[in-house]
Amino acid sequence: MRFDTILPMAAANNxxxxxxxxxxxxxxxxxxxxxxxxxxxxxAPCVVEAVRKSVDMGVFGYGYDKAGYLDSLCWWMxxxxxxxxxxxxxxxxxxxxxxIATTIDLWSEPGEGVAYFTPVYHEFRFKTERAGRTPVELPxxxxxxxxxxxxxxxxxxxxxxxxxxxxxxxxxxxxRIWSREELRRVAAFAEEHNLILVSDEVHCDxxxxxxxxxxxxxxxxxxxxxxxxxxxxxxxFNLAGMRVxxxxxxxxxxxxxxxxxLTALNYDPTVMGITATAAAYTPQGNEWLAAQMAxxxxxxxxFDTAVNAxxxxxxxxxxxxxxxxxxxxxxxxxxxxxxxxxxxxxxLGTAPGDWFGTGGxxxxxxxxxxxxxxxxxxxTRLAAAFSDLQ
Length: 390
Ligand SMILES: Cc1ncc(COP(=O)(O)O)c(C=O)c1O
Fold this sequence. Notes:
- The protein is of the alpha/beta class and 390 residues long.
- The protein folds into two domains: 15-43 and 285-389, Aspartate Aminotransferase, domain 1, CATH 3.90.1150.10; 49-282, Aspartate Aminotransferase, domain 2 (3-Layer(aba) Sandwich).
- The chain is 40% helix and 15% strand.
- It contains 14 helices and 15 strands.
- It has helices at 15-18, 20-24, 45-57, 67-81, 96-107, 123-130, 151-157, 180-192, 216-219, 252-264, 271-280, 283-308, 335-345, 372-385, and strands at residues 32-33, 90-93, 113-118, 134-139, 141-143, 146-148, 162-168, 196-200, 227-231, 245-248, 314-315, 325-327, 348-349, 351-352, 363-365.
- The strands form four sheets. Strands 2-10-9-8-7-3-4 form a seven-stranded mixed beta sheet, with helices on both faces.
- Helix 3 runs antiparallel to helix 11 (271-280), helix 4 runs parallel beside helix 11 (271-280) and helix 5 packs across helix 6 (123-130).
- The radius of gyration is 21 Å and the shape is globular.
- 47% of the residues are buried.
- Pyridoxal-5'-phosphate (PLP) is lined by residues 37, 95-97, 121, 168, 172, 200, 202, 232, 234, 240, 245.
- Pyridoxal-5'-phosphate binds at residues 37, 95-97, 121, 168, 172, 200, 202, 232, 234, 240, 245.
């Protein structure tokens, strides 16, 4: 099975495997690396074929016409998400970390606030801090095993100089897919507090159980004048190393500001990244994605069944993403003891929950975009590491 072959990930220079020992003291020979959100199986054959064709030609000179790539992207958006995107709205970036950093740089000054609902993708905080801005955490509320946005508390937490709201949709971690009503409230909150709204939708293609993802621009089109949507093929098609992402910006003034800065900094996407992305956003790519989701759905069941059988440990049911968010609070253990057991005893290189900000302390984030044997090993190793609780 194409998703079940165990690949020599270190030989592919895969960062989560290469850094496993230095980061967590886990020997990659008997550990499982999962602290980065990419997959341990190859991308779609149609993408490999397109890249191979370019490699076989051996011409890696300057690229030019991006129309094929933009047409593919717009087809994908309309086909999968019912969103009609004008190719003129799309600004390509060197991945989405680049897009987030560019937005922080353009719409805030050093010392000013950048807000986000926590727990959330840790790079929201890291990028805010690296830019010398002030992180403003807006903790979500955990109600019956599901995160809810608390707008009253969020309004209290904002500082007068908060300029940007980074919003993760679907949420990483937890995989929560937001409803139209929730998205509208987020956009209205940004409007009320005069914040630039970044809707990071990179995980939106990875939907389980048919739960629909709604693009922010469809949910709240009247707030386009402050909204930037982030998108990329990187998570869906395991292309993060190709370093291509898209900022989709319907508002001409916002877009002009981004284009001016990226042009001034002489940024241009790589020819190979564009080739791979254009090949991914096709009917063949879509078929491969269906096969990947069937695999991930099986992995989610295997993982949840094994993990939820451990007393005091609870995996949050994923609606999206391949990143299970597991709560160990029911074990009554300190986070250092949980870390010792997960990393030290089970040799599972998870992302510790405190990376993700307030509310994440008792959690670990796993990654099931892996061969079945690895996902099964996660369950058996965790059960062994917490066997005294059985
Ligand atoms: C929500 C979210 N945004 C952005 C990124 C980073 O994207 P890129 O690799 O394109 O910089 C990630 C990667 O894990 C992510 O989960």
